[in-house]
Amino acid sequence: MHFALPSLTPLVVIAAPGLAGSWFTGPGLGAPGVAVPGLALPAAQAATTLDGAVLDAIGHPARTIEANVRAFAALGPESLPRCFELAVARELSIAVDGSKSFVLPVSDEVEIALVAAAALAPRADVVRLLARVAATAAAPREVEVALRIAALAGTADDVELVRSLALRFATERGTPLEVRQAFGLAFHSIALRDDHALAHVRGLYLGVERSLADALLRALGALQDEASAEALGGLLGARPELDLRVLGELARVGRGLPLPAPESTREAVRSYLRDDEPTLQRAACRAAFALQDIDAVPVWIELLEGDDDVARAALDALRRTTRKALDRDAEEWRAWRERELADWRVAERRADELRSPDRAKAAAELLALGRAKLHRHQAAELVAGAFARDETDLLRLACQVLGELGSPAGEAALVDATEHADASVREAAELALERVRERQRERAGEREP
After folding, report:
1. Where does residue 348 rank: exposed (0-12), middle (13-18), buried (19+ CB within 10 A)?
2. What one-character-per-residue DSSP string does 314-364 give?
3. Residue 103 has what DSSP assignment?
4. In DSSP terms, which residues pair with 103 in a beta bridge?
5. Which one of 113, 312, 362, 387 is separated from 180 by 20 to 30 angstroms, measured CA to CA?
6. Pairing of strands 100-105, 91-96
7. CA–CA distance from 109 to each of 13, 19, 29, 34, 187 (Å)?
8. CB neighbours of 441 closer than 8 A, spacing ≥ 6?
């Protein structure tokens, strides 16, 4: 039976947790082929049995993982159970002359290929295998391999099956590390392919023991998109003992988002700024900053007048959000915020002047928008509208303003401007683009203080 074989690089990466990026320099690669007298199988057997194909792979360690995946998968779905058995056992027993047998170790690279080949079997066969393992697995190693197969082949419909697999060896004391890691990998990989998996997050979070819930949080945090931010925000309060971890993952996700997170997530985090527990307040300060929640600013200002540790976290969030180096003086910050909001309301109200035939008025409005600190994303959206104009001096100014704002909201307009007929506009757009992207790189690389 023929398999449809897609590009195998993603399969190899997922099938090899912890080995991604190193599989071409792993043990045995580049070494001479295995030469064990009496172990060579007849060519016909090597071509028609999985054991023969695995022996051939062991004997040719320089062969790529992708080539082995194709060789194993080409043997058809009938080889699925044996793929699983060999991946779990990590050894191949070969009979010689009907009286002796040798046990050969299966290398990391061959095991990866076995897992990836198993995932290429028809979906119904894979699901049956995973269900059987969830019901009968005798060792955590079986569950780990099954979860790695699920990571490659699973869909949102399989989330409950993934949970059942992970719970096979879960106890009150926790779950074996290799199972936890494979569980997180499986959910993360499924969610990357099928965002409907996120609809199952809350039930999954509440339905597993603590160490597995932590692995789920890590998997969500690694997604780093708006949907995962929203899903994480919905978990706050569901398991209070893990709220600190949820806030930490939200900060991680927020640093990777170009624009503010969904309001529902920002609101959920904001409520923790007034929590009774200072540790949660500090974590909420970091998360609210990472999620670019400008509505948290007045609360941060209030926190300057309270607990010293919380005040330090709030001051750090204020300074990094506004790029203002004011001291821990709540009244000074309140006065600055009032001026900032007043200036923004005027600039926003005069946004139509960007289309004014009076070039001086248009330039003044561009400069006014460029001074926005709290509303820089909204300002960038307005400035992007100025690129409908023809005057090169105003277009250069608009580029400079977008570079100062550093918001991805103006990136598309800048990209278009890099192809403008005027060289000075192109140069200004390229410089501004670099400033915007540099600010994003800074945000993505930030670490919690």
Report:
1. middle
2. HHHHHHHHH-----S-HHHHHHHHHHHHHHHHHHHHTGGGGG-S-HHHHHH
3. E
4. 93
5. 113
6. antiparallel
7. 11, 9, 9, 15, 23
8. none
CA 220 to chain centre: 7
Closest CA to 133 of 142, 125, 120: 142
Q: How far apart are CA 313 and CA 72, in angstroms?
A: 55
- DSSP summary character for residue 306: S
Structural tokens at position 12: 């190899």
DSSP state of 171: B
Residue that has been written with the tokens 């119904």 in this structure: 124
Block residue for tokens 């894979």: 126
Structure tokens at 274: 């007034």
Domain ranges of the chain: 9-119, 356-445
Q: What pLDDT tens digit does each residue of the chain (449 aa) get?
A: 334 444 444 444 455 544 333 222 223 222 233 333 344 444 434 447 999 999 999 999 999 999 999 999 999 999 999 999 999 999 999 877 766 788 999 999 999 999 999 999 999 999 999 999 999 999 999 999 999 999 999 999 999 999 999 999 999 889 999 999 999 999 999 999 998 999 999 999 999 999 999 999 999 999 989 999 999 999 999 999 999 999 999 999 999 999 999 999 999 999 999 999 999 999 999 999 999 999 999 999 999 999 999 999 999 999 999 999 999 999 999 999 999 999 999 999 999 999 999 999 999 999 999 999 999 999 999 999 999 999 999 999 999 999 999 999 999 999 999 999 999 999 999 999 999 999 988 887 765 54
Single-letter amino acid, residue 236? L
Measured distance CA(437)–CA(174) in Å, rounded:
42
- Joined together, the tokens standing for residue 345 give 């309301």
Longest CA–CA separation in the chain, Å: 97
Burial class (CB within 10 angstroms; exposed 0-12, middle 13-18, buried 19+) of 339 = exposed
> Do the beta carbons of residue 269 and residue 284 sit within 8 Å?
yes
